[in-house]
Amino acid sequence: MADTYNGYCVKCKEKRDFQGEVSVSDSGRRMAKGPCPVCGTKMNRILGKA
């Protein structure tokens, strides 16, 4: 189930909306991960704990 998130693409140097899935990092943080719709680079967005 992919939702839309807003994140910063390091390669394009712009904020973009991307389709991503929520995963939990090793430190216990929730993050949305997905590809940039323009260049295809991986994008991450750290989400709240709730």
UniProtKB/TrEMBL annotation:
It holds the Pfam family DUF5679. InterPro entries: DUF5679 (IPR044044). Residues 8-46 form the DUF5679 domain. This is DUF5679 domain-containing protein.
